[in-house]
Each structure stands twice: as structure tokens, then as C-alpha cells.
Design goal:
Layout: E1 16-20, E2 23-26, E3 31-34, H1 37-40, H2 49-61, H3 72-82, E4 90-95, H4 98-113, E5 117-121, H5 130-134, E6 149-153, H6 158-164, E7 171-174, H7 190-201, E8 204-208, H8 222-226, E9 232-235, E10 246-251, H9 252-255, H10 271-284, H11 289-303, E11 309-315, E12 318-323, H12 329-338, E13 341-342, E14 351-354, H13 364-386
Parallel strand pairs: 3-13, 5-6, 5-7, 7-8, 8-9
Antiparallel strand pairs: 1-2, 2-3, 4-10, 9-10, 11-12, 12-14
Helix pairs in contact: 2-10, 3-10, 11-13
The structure holds pyridoxal-5'-phosphate (PLP).
């Protein structure tokens, strides 16, 4: 008999034994600055003291409740989360993950419009369940058939959006910034075009804010950053600071027009998740919090175009470091890890991703800059060592015992060279 883990992931070679805030401690006693933040999940870093207290208090008070019963954490969550809402009236449905949040948004949009066609975009990632996978890019294996008709348009192609989004389309779903695709921002006018085409044809616009939401871009939502409002939006990852949660948010008029029985969940909206999400919402809406996100994000942009990095793109603390030609993201990530900084990769092998805790220390950009310089110095040293040396004279100099080095073999580096 044996039991092994499903071989789903290619693991990064680091063994973490504990973490506090944005600092990881490895088994061999090293400290690593975490700029990946558990792919946007650790909004307040690791081991946040307040979140710890909230979780244990809620466990003690009432650990689980069916959605058929009312409870304090639900009322508290609605109050705390309401502070983050864009203008207007909204309803929220709580589940456990980003994929579920998107499933519910798609299902609701198709039920409301009575249509079965969804427009999505190349490069998109919306999750691995049936509906969510159907609107994600085809580069990942998914189900053999799709539960509804899905049209995938090229990202940022305004003309394709103009042509395709008509009265046959029930929903248009997108990440306002495509994260896994390499932190791809929307082109000027792209979101506005989608909004206009949806309004003209009666399709519902869904923003997947699983990564971009909860303060990540320096605004509560990407919609506020870009000034384009969706009809529904989803979030997950960082919304409860590490506790599993998924949120589907819709204009109140739309939510109240969905048929009874369409939505439902056992674990979603349990008191533990809601207590954690309330605490996170209160923290990110505290004075100065989003200013910190914007300021540290600006510092990363200002000081990290160096060494292997040619360009920084993205917003707030969802950033893509675009590498110079010839550099591979996985190789640079490993080299940065050796320098004590953890960053992420993505579907684009020439882009590294930063999605750190939003309350990370202000010196994080300087620490990444120093690590990038060290990686560049190492690379330079290694390529100098790899330069083939001119052939050595066949006859050794008189008095020398050195034997000629075989052609092509790199010279060994002496100390200090
Ligand atoms: C933009 C986006 N949407 C949806 C998902 C799916 O979320 P989950 O893994 O919680 O189901 C992810 C996960 O990475 C994501 O990045």
C-alpha cells in the first residue's frame, strides 16, 4: 500500500518552517522576503495577530452554522464589506473559492439573460471547474466539452469585441488585469468598449477580481481603478486573508431576479470565513492602507528595472517583471530565491510576478533591487567564466608545470576573479 500526493504541482525548492508577515524562515535557518504572498492570498501577510484572534474567537463562539440560520458574523460581514462597495446597490453570495465564485456569476448571468453564449479572452484564467475552465485559455487541459457556448476573443482586440458582442451574448467575463497571462493590462478603451457593447446588446459584464480585488491595485476594486463598472464581479484569494472564501457580487436588481434555488452551498458563508473577511475588509478600509499599497507599488516600479528586468507592468501590488531577452523566469526566480527573495512565475516564461502581502515593509523594493543586482553580478561572472579562452600554446613555458586545458572547458575561477 502507498499514498502519494497527486503530482499536480512543480514545487519551488524551498523548505519553509515558519512565516511572519512577509518573512519566511527556511529549515536551514535562512530568512526569505516573500513577494509572492501565496498568489495574492496573504493580504495581511502570514500569522497576522488580529486574524489569529478573530479565528479562534469565532471558533469558540460558533464554529459552523447552516446558511438557513442567521448569525452575527454574517451581519458584521455585510457591514464591513459594504464599505468597500462601489457606488450603487449590490448583493453578495459567499462560497469557498475563486472558481466557485465565477461559476455562480456565469450561471446567474445566463439565467438572467436567458442566453447561452459567453465571451471570454485569450490568456484568461478563471478556475478549473467546468464553467470556469470553459472561459479560461485553452492552454490548460480542461473538460472534453463545455456546459455553454464559449467564444474566446484576443485580449485587447477592440475590433473583435465590437464585432462579436451582440444581442446573442449573455455574458462577457474577464480579469481587468490578466495575472497568470503575465500581468497584462487592458489597452486604453478596451474596458469601455466591452461596457458599451454589453449595454448595447444586453449582455452582462463580469469582472473576475479574484486577484485584482481587495485592495491589490491600490483601490478596493480594479473597476474603481479603471473607471468601468461591471454588472457582476467575483473575488476570492485575499478576501479573507488566507481563509478559503469566494464572493460573487451582483447589482441588487440582477440578484433579485435570479430564480430561487439557483444558488446554494454548504460551507460557503460559514461564520469562520465571514469573521475573517470582515476583519480583512476593516483593515484594508483603514486610513492609509491603500496609500501604502500605491506607494510601495510605485517604489517597485521605480527601482526594479535593473539587472535582468527590462520593464515593470501592472498596478499597485500586482506587478509583472518583464525580463530582458535571453532570461528565463524560472531561472531568475531560483536565482532570486538564492538571494533571499521569493517571487512568482506565470504562463509567460519571460515574466516574473509580484503579488506580496499588501502590508509588506516599505524597504521591500530596495531589497528586491539589491537581489536583482546580485543576480546580475552572478550571471555576469558565470558568462565571463563560460567565454572560451584562446587555445593554449602547445609547449608549456619553461619552468611551468601547468598542462594545457582541454579546449572548451571553462577556466576555473580563482578567488576574487
Ligand atoms: C483570476 C483568477 N480567477 C479564478 C481563479 C480560481 O480561483 P481558485 O483557485 O480559488 O478556484 C484564480 C486562481 O488562480 C485566478 O487567478
Amino acid at each position: 500500500m502507498s499514498l502519494n500526493e497527486w503530482p499536480a504541482y512543480k514545487r519551488i525548492a524551498v523548505d519553509v518552517v515558519s512565516a511572519t508577515g512577509s518573512e519566511l524562515t527556511t529549515r536551514d535557518g535562512r530568512t526569505v522576503l516573500d513577494l509572492y504572498g501565496g498568489h495574492c492570498v496573504n493580504t495581511l501577510g502570514a500569522g497576522d495577530a488580529e486574524l489569529g484572534r478573530v479565528l479562534s474567537r469565532q471558533w469558540r463562539d460558533w464554529s459552523f452554522a447552516t446558511n438557513l440560520l442567521d448569525h452575527g458574523p454574517r451581519r458584521e460581514f455585510l457591514q464591513a464589506f459594504e464599505r468597500l462597495m462601489p457606488a450603487g446597490d449590490w448583493c453578495v453570495f459567499v462560497t469557498n473559492s475563486g472558481a466557485e465564485a465565477n461559476e455562480n456569476a456565469l450561471k446567474a448571468a445566463l439565467a438572467i439573460t436567458g442566453r447561452r453564449r459567453v465571451v471570454a479572452f485569450s490568456g484568461a484564467f478563471h478556475g478549473r471547474t467546468g464553467g470556469a475552465a470553459s472561459v479560461s485559455d485553452t492552454k490548460r487541459p480542461a473538460y472534453p466539452s463545455m456546459p455553454f457556448e464559449s467564444l474566446r476573443l484576443p485580449w485587447n482586440d477592440l475590433a473583435a469585441a465590437e464585432r462579436t458582442i451582440d444581442a446573442s451574448v449573455g455574458a462577457v467575463i474577464l480579469e481587468p488585469i490578466q495575472s497568470l497571462a503575465g500581468v497584462q493590462e487592458p489597452a486604453p478603451g478596451f474596458l469601455e468598449t466591452l461596457r458599451r457593447r454589453c449595454d448595447a446588446g444586453g449582455a452582462l459584464l463580469i469582472f473576475d477580481e479574484v486577484q485584482t480585488g481587495n485592495g491589490r491595485l491600490g483601490t478596493y476594486w480594479a473597476s474603481q481603478r479603471f473607471g468601468v463598472m461591471p454588472d457582476l464581479f467575483t473575488t476570492a484569494k485575499g478576501a479573507a486573508g488566507g481563509y478559503p472564501i469566494g464572493l460573487t457580487v451582483a447589482r441588487a436588481a440582477l440578484a433579485s431576479s435570479t430564480p430561487e434555488g439557483l444558488m446554494g452551498t454548504t460551507f460557503g458563508g460559514g461564520p469562520l470565513a465571514l469573521a475573517m473577511a470582515s476583519a480583512v475588509a476593516r483593515r484594508i478600509s483603514a486610513p492609509g492602507f491603500l496609500e501604502h499599497v500605491r506607494a510601495v507599488g510605485a517604489d517597485f516600479r521605480a527601482c526594479c528595472v535593473r539587472g535582468p528586468v527590462a520593464q515593470v507592468r501592472g498596478e499597485g501590488l500586482l506587478l509583472g517583471l518583464v525580463l530582458k531577452p535571453g532570461h528565463k523566469a524560472a531561472v531568475v526566480r531560483d536565482a532570486l530565491l538564492a538571494q533571499g527573495v521569493l517571487v512568482g512565475t506565470c504562463d509567460d516564461p519571460s515574466v516574473l510576478r509580484l503579488s506580496p502581502a499588501l502590508n509588506l515593509p516599505s524597504d521591500a523594493p530596495a531589497r528586491l533591487a539589491a537581489a536583482l543586482d546580485a543576480v546580475a553580478a552572478e550571471t555576469e561572472k558565470a558568462s565571463a567564466a563560460a567565454v572560451p579562452t584562446p587555445p593554449v600554446a602547445a609547449t608549456p613555458a619553461l619552468g611551468s608545470s601547468a598542462s594545457p586545458r582541454p579546449a572548451g572547458k571553462p577556466a576555473a575561477l580563482g578567488a576574487g576573479s
